[in-house]
Design brief:
- The chain has 391 residues and is an alpha/beta fold.
- Among the domains are: 158 residues, 2-Layer Sandwich (Heat Shock Protein 90), CATH 3.30.565; 105 residues, Response regulator (Rossmann fold, 3-Layer(aba) Sandwich), CATH 3.40.50.
- Helices cover 52% and strands 19% of the residues.
- It is built from nine helices and twelve strands.
- Strands 2-4-5-7-6 form a five-stranded mixed β-sheet.
- Strand 4 and strand 5 form a beta hairpin.
- The longest helix is centred in the N-terminal third of the chain and has 80 residues.
- It starts with a helix and ends with a helix.
């Protein structure tokens, strides 16, 4: 009898242990399920917020695109339908040009946002004269404020670089895009006062750019979200933005970081904001600059035929410093290669991807590629132009 009771007690204890083990595993499984549910809920919330943000800047950019199209249409209609004096015609042309540039900036920001999210953002590092580049940007915004914005704002440019450090290698189009976004924002948020663009050497291999304004400044409670898409449009001011896409600062920060630089800002509410950013640069050797700057192609005409916009613009940047007249043609494939080339150029510069489509061999030509050396390329062009002149 005693043995039977002990056996039952042992079996009962074993069952209790098994039940405890099962309960322990159930609790573990329940904890894992709870953690997975929390992660899933967080992912759903994050996705919903991202979709909400995307819908916000899609709506914002759609409005800005529509406004720009309306402005262009109004300007062109006024030019066609009325007999205006030259000064008024010039004003309308500037307005149309301004709206066209806004549309291009919107398109670039939207396309780059997609490239950032998909990890396909690319860069092309080319030789650029920083003084010429900054002068070009200055002249554009100065003239647009004079004819279109008409704000009591003085635009100041300061270049604190030695002559040898003004010729550098960087991504020209990306640098223009960053500066245009920051300067455009400065004009948006400055009713009167001054906007200043500065460039100087930050370290041995980095440049420092700054864009300051005397606008409303940035409220401290949104500092952390300044670079979030659509944040600035909704929070900073209650008046309508004319140019801010809600993506400009976000895209600019991504571009700067991927180019090896940093961006930051200082701001005081009611007094203004200064954005700073650094970019690495490669200084072109003094010998290369001296040797490449002697070409005089002022009386020559070149036709650039490419299939990539960035690469074609880069080629035009290289040859334009030698005062050559040029025209660019961008085609989708070899079948679109122009057959009747008029007026006749002195030289044709062709992307290597479509070189086989060139049939008219009586016009001298040379090819360019993604890994072009600007110095050697200009030497080749000069050799062709010199030989043609001699012949």
């Amino acid at each position: 009898m005693q043995e039977t009771m002990e056996l039952k007690q042992t079996l009962l204890e074993e069952q209790n242990h098994k039940i405890q083990d099962i309960n322990s595993k159930l609790r573990q499984n329940n904890t894992q399920i709870t953690e997975q549910n929390l992660k899933l809920s967080e992912q759903i919330r994050k996705t919903a917020n991202e979709n909400k943000t995307k819908m916000g800047y899609i709506a914002g950019t759609s409005r800005e695109l529509k406004n720009s199209i309306v402005n262009i249409n109004d300007s062109l209609s006024a030019l066609l339908e009325t007999n205006l004096p030259p000064a008024s015609q010039k004003k309308l042309i500037h307005q149309a040009r301004y709206s066209t540039r806004l549309m291009m900036m919107l398109a670039n920001d939207i396309m780059d946002l997609d490239r950032i999210e998909s990890g396909t953002l690319t860069f092309q590092y080319n030789i650029v004269n920083l003084e010429q580049l900054l002068n070009e940007i200055y002249e554009y915004y100065h003239s647009q404020n004079l004819y279109v914005l008409k704000k009591p704002v003085v635009f100041v440019k300061k270049i604190e670089l030695s002559e040898e450090n003004q010729i550098v290698k960087t991504d020209i189009l990306r640098l223009k895009q960053i500066l245009s976004n920051l300067i455009g924002n400065a004009y948006n948020f400055t009713k009167m006062g001054k906007i200043e663009l500065c460039c100087k050497q930050y370290s041995k291999d980095k440049l420092l750019f700054s864009i300051s304004d005397t606008g409303n400044g940035i409220p401290e409670d949104v500092y952390e979200n300044v670079y979030s898409p659509n944040q600035r449009r909704q929070t900073f001011f209650d008046h309508k933005m004319l140019e801010d896409t809600g993506l400009g600062l976000f895209v600019s920060k991504e571009l700067i970081n991927k180019m090896g630089g940093n961006i930051w800002f200082n701001s005081q509410s009611g007094q203004g904001t200064t954005f700073y950013f650094t970019l690495p640069f490669i200084k072109v050797s003094e010998l290369a600059v001296k040797n490449s700057i002697n070409y005089d192609w002022q009386n020559k005409y070149a036709l650039i035929i490419g299939c990539d916009r960035y690469r074609t613009v880069y080629i035009s940047e290289i040859i334009s410093r030698y005062k050559i007249k040029y025209k660019t043609v961008i085609i989708e494939n070899e079948e679109k290669f122009p057959k009747d080339i008029q007026p006749r150029p002195d030289i044709i510069l062709i992307d290597e991807k479509i070189e086989n489509a060139y049939k008219n061999q009586d016009i001298p030509h040379t090819v360019f590629s993604e890994k072009i050396n600007p110095y050697d390329f200009c030497q080749e062009i000069n050799k062709i132009l010199t030989n043609e002149k001699q012949n």
